[in-house]
Write a structure and sequence with these properties.
The chain is an alpha/beta fold. It folds into two domains: 252 residues, Aminopeptidase (3-Layer(aba) Sandwich), CATH 3.40.630; 118 residues, Alpha-Beta Plaits. Helix 3 crosses helix 9.
């Protein structure tokens, strides 16, 4: 079995579920075990690195290899995964079967991370075109905080390549995500006297109806040529205490996908106006922004796109430029002034699934692509 697949299997066997849903690291949550694995790899290959705290006990690992006079390059992939409760296979058992590696994170995003680490190591042994930084970032799944911490520290490069499951195609544009929590408030009384109370769920029903009309209207807006149009979805709802109590509170979570060219504050204001129009002044509500994941759009003629096309073309021959519906750390780098693209092994259709897997052939070819990028 190839070195990159052995490294990937070691990563899958190392739990690193994001703490975004539970708050604190524990036996399966948190990136600390992956930080140790990545750091040990760089120690073994005599590559300098630093540990950068993102949250207590949750760090970025940033390796740096000096190169020639060519453009500086950032390669980045994240160490955290989503939850495992939906899985019907053992999440941390990296089974190899029918040319695939199975397990949580095998596709998103440890395949990219393992391939990048092997690619950088191999390229470093040959001599890099320019200085390469390899970042293994924490907390991508619930807020892109590892990438944001890196750019907030003042880090800069002349181009960035972010590893995510793109089927080894080059993504130069993707959607962002505006996530909001909306609450309505009422007055709790015994359900035998509902007219004496104020039902927060009924109030929320008016808001949800307005949001559904807003979502339908978004389909009529102009489409971006690579990522399509904006969308809006009410994804979660909760409220009430018991069947015999008029509920005094109800909450929904809304996911509004943002396309390149849209402005996040304008999107938030649109939703506020939609709610206000739906309920008027008769209902008490509030709105909290929980995530502002930015969209990405990179000039197809810029240096990092041409460099990535050259590397991908040398390995797969497929230099088509595509878009993605999901968000990535690339948007944070792009917003900070680092032109960024996304490419990695695996299919987004396998990410976060009950039977997550990645094709071995794609992982091995990804390592060659990342190596070519460092040498180009």
């Amino acid at each position: 079995m190839s070195e990159v697949i052995e490294l990937l299997r070691a990563m899958v066997a190392t739990p690193s579920v994001s703490c975004g849903s539970c708050g604190e690291p524990d036996a399966t949550h948190g990136e600390s075990r992956m930080v140790e694995l990545v750091a040990e790899f760089w120690d073994r290959h005599h590559v300098d690195y630093q540990i950068q705290e993102v949250h207590p006990g949750r760090d970025n690992v940033i390796a740096r290899v000096e190169g020639g006079s060519g453009p500086s390059l950032l390669l980045e992939a994240h160490t955290d995964t989503v939850e495992v409760e939906n899985m019907v296979i053992e999440p941390f058992d990296p089974v190899v079967k029918a040319g695939r590696v199975y397990g949580r994170g095998s596709c998103d995003d440890k395949a990219s991370l393992a391939a990048m680490m092997i690619g950088v190591r191999n390229a470093a042994e040959q001599g890099l075109a320019g200085t390469v930084t390899m970042a293994a970032a924490a907390d991508e799944e619930y807020g892109f905080h590892g990438a944001r911490k890196l750019v907030e520290s003042g880090f800069m490069a002349e181009g960035a390549v972010v590893g995510e499951p793109t089927g080894l195609q080059l993504v130069i544009a993707h959607k962002g995500a505006c996530r909001l929590n909306i609450s309505t408030y009422g007055t709790a009384v015994h359900s035998s006297r509902p007219h004496e109370g104020d039902n927060a769920i009924y109030a929320m029903a008016e808001i949800v109806r307005g949001l559904r009309d807003y979502a339908d209207a978004l389909y009529q807006r102009p489409q971006h040529p690579l990522v399509g149009g904006p969308t809006c979805c009410v994804g979660m709802i909760s409220g009430g205490q018991a069947p015999n109590i008029v509920p005094d509170r109800c909450e929904v979570s809304v996911d509004r996908r943002v396309i390149p060219g849209e402005d996040m504050p304008v999107v938030e204001e649109e939703i506020r106006n939609t709610i206000a129009a739906a309920v008027g002044d008769e209902i008490t509500w509030d709105l909290e922004l929980s995530l502002a994941g930015l969209p990405l759009e990179t000039d197809p003629e810029c240096g990092i796109v041409l460099r990535a096309c050259q590397a991908i073309g040398a390995v797969t021959g497929d230099t088509k430029l595509v878009g993605a519906q999901y968000g990535t750390d690339a948007a944070a780098f792009s917003r900070s002034g680092i032109p960024s693209v996304v490419v990695g092994p695996g299919s987004i259709e396998q990410a976060h699934t009950a039977v997550e897997y990645v094709d071995i052939d794609q992982v091995e070819r990804a390592a060659l692509i990342y190596e070519e990028l460092c040498l180009a």
